[in-house]
Amino acid sequence: MRIRATVAVLTGTLALSALVVPAAQAADEPNAPKFAPFAADMPLDEVVGDTKITKVTVNGGKDIVLGTTEKKKVTIAVTATDPSGIIAGSAFLWHGTDVEADIDGLIFPDELMADCKVVNATTSTCTSTVVVDPKVDLWSNTLAGKWKVSASAYGDDGDYVAKDELASDARMQRNARLTTNASPEPVKKGKTLTVTGALTRANWETSKYAGYTSQPVKLQYKKKGATSYSTLKTITSDSKGNLKTTVKASADGYFRYVFAGTSTTPAVTSTGDFVDVN
To answer: Which of 102, 80, 98 is closest to 89 using CA atoms?
Structure first.
């Protein structure tokens, strides 16, 4: 399994495995880059000198919604400062209680070093890109919710900072689907309409969608020609995620179900189903 194989490499070294040194230390090599890798033998969560991480933004602050098959690119932007300027940075996402001892999820960028953009003489924002594959990275539904960020930044004077438990401002969520069907169609005014539907969400363990049970879902209605929906009632999805309720037909219009979402599942609104009332 990818996670287990990589965790063995992580222990005690990953956040600093890309640690850099100033160009002066490679000055005797004319073709050497401005910085070169250090040996990965330093501990995590360490500060040397006055380098600081001031901000971390994951996926632009938006929740990361994954279905069962489609991969998604996610950015990790780390803003850091040092009086001498920032020359490099790195970051990855992880899930668990301890990055060295208890980790059950890891998403590491293909490129070890982040792409750093200068903000000013002392500050840069270094952005790493990871690709989240639900079939590989999200092996358990328990991975939905908050992940953590391990990030490092390196000053031009050799100072550095490494933090392994930075909070992510984006949640990993299981994609949701919602349907609505009102019948019979057409229907006479005053007669009973039955509105059915289903609330399902991605099951990362089976790579299929399954019913999201015991969830409050709003039934909304928009009269033909109107510009907005109004809520008629709130019902609860059953043991298979199914929805079913009845209303009286009053006029031509659209019915839809709306789910507000949870910490592990995004909000979703079904397509409106038009009913002809005569």
So the answer is: 80
Tracing tokens 């222990």 back to the chain, one arrives at 11
234-240's contacts with Cβ under 8 Å and 24+ in sequence apart are 237/198, 237/199, 237/211, 237/212, 237/213, 238/211, 238/213, 239/211, 239/213, 239/214, 240/198, 240/211, 240/213
Q: How many CB atoms lie within 10 A of CB 223?
A: 15
Using 70 as the pLDDT threshold, list the residues of the chain that sit under it: 1-44
pLDDT digits (tens, 9 = 90+) for 236-249: 999 999 999 999 99
Q: How far apart are CA 123 and CA 205, in angstroms?
A: 42
Q: What is the pLDDT of residues 104-155, one digit of tens each?
A: 999 999 898 999 999 999 999 999 999 999 999 999 999 999 999 999 999 9
Q: According to DSSP H, which parts of the chain are helical?
A: 2-10
Cα 112–Cα 113–Cα 119 angle in degrees, nearest 5: 155
Using DSSP, state whether 158 is helix, strand or coil.
Answer: coil
**Domains of the chain, first to last:** 2-173 (no CATH), 176-275 (2.60.40.730)
CA–CA separation, 89 and 117 (whole Å): 10
Neighbours of 128 (CB within 10 A): 25
Instruction: Write out the E strands in 123-191.
Output: 123-132, 145-155, 160-174, 176-183
pTM, two decimal places: 0.83
In this prediction, residue 278 carries a pLDDT of 94
What is the helix, strand, coil percentage profile of the chain, to 5?
10, 50, 40
pLDDT given at position 44? 62
| 182 within 8 A of 208, measured Cβ to Cβ | no
